[in-house]
Design brief:
Order of helices and strands: EEEEEE
Structural class: mainly beta
Number of strands: 6
Shape: globular
Strand content: over 45%
Distance between the termini: 19 Å
Strand order of the largest sheet: 1-2-3
Number of helices: 0
Number of domains: 1
Oligomer: single chain
Radius of gyration: 13 Å
């Protein structure tokens, strides 16, 4: 799949499948099961998406803009 986002229908609402890089598999994977979290750093906070790799079951992360809607 070449597109970074694919529209899917989940429980009556539309969500986007995001593309993550799995450090365990060492390849790009797409997951539609993710949640937005905030990571606290020394200089402030960063928004990130945390999901599960569909291949190996490990956690995958992706930093996004604070106003990300997905």
């Amino acid at each position: 799949m070449t597109s970074a986002a694919i529209m899917t229908s989940v429980v009556g609402r539309e969500t986007m499948a995001e593309e993550f890089y799995c450090m365990k598999c060492r390849k790009k994977v797409q997951s539609d099961k993710f949640e937005k979290k905030t990571l606290k750093t020394k200089t402030g906070e960063r928004a990130q998406l945390v999901g599960i790799c569909p291949v190996c079951g490990g956690k995958v992360y992706k930093f996004v803009k604070a106003d990300f809607k997905g």
